[in-house]
Amino acid sequence: MPQALATVALLLASSVALAQPSLRGTWASDAERSTAFNRQFAHLEERTQLFLQQILGRATVEFTPTHVVLNMPDVETTSPDGKKSVPKGFSERRRYRIVSTTPTQVVVETTQPITGARVATVYTFDGPDVVWVYLASPGFDRLHAREYFSRVARSTQPR
User: Where does 19-153 sit in CATH, by number?
Assistant: First the structure.
């Protein structure tokens, strides 16, 4: 009997260790965590750091079973020389598919809204409710900055 209990315990432990992370739910950009990482490791120009400090912490991302919804409000920003601007916010809903998972990462494929080009995003988990992505886009592919997100609501939708 003790041997059977040990086997069950081992099986349960191994299934927990192999559990894949889930993006399902609503995530909020974490300005404090993102800014702390970027200041220490990203080596950004002052103007880029200032811009990111003003926009990080505003976005939300919701993953449903079939779609990802990205929301970013209009945000007033101020340049290093004091010039104010308001980048236009957006709300985008796109189908996605999970390409790959590991115990700490989920790779998601979506399409760009205007071009329809396929793009993959790697979400790296720092725990079950904290995830980060590299901030890279055309013209900023060497940025090496991260945006962290914290899960604020779990999905209640069935799989």
Answer: 2.40.128
Entry pTM: 0.81
Question: What is the DSSP-derived secondary structure letter of residue 142?
Answer: T
Q: What is the DSSP letter of 62?
A: E
pLDDT tens for 38-92 read 999 888 888 888 999 999 999 999 999 999 999 999 999 999 999 999 989 999 9
Residue-range domain boundaries for the chain: 19-153
Q: Going along the chain, which residue ranges are E strands?
A: 25-29, 60-63, 67-72, 77-78, 84-85, 90-95, 97-101, 105-111, 118-125, 130-135, 145-153
Contact assessment for residue 68 and residue 108, using Cβ atoms and an 8 Å cutoff: yes
Sign of CA dihedral 92, 136, 151, 95: positive
Give the span between the Cα atoms of 77 and 79, in whole angstroms: 7
**pLDDT per residue as tens digits for the range 85-129:** 998 999 999 999 999 999 999 999 999 877 889 999 999 999 999
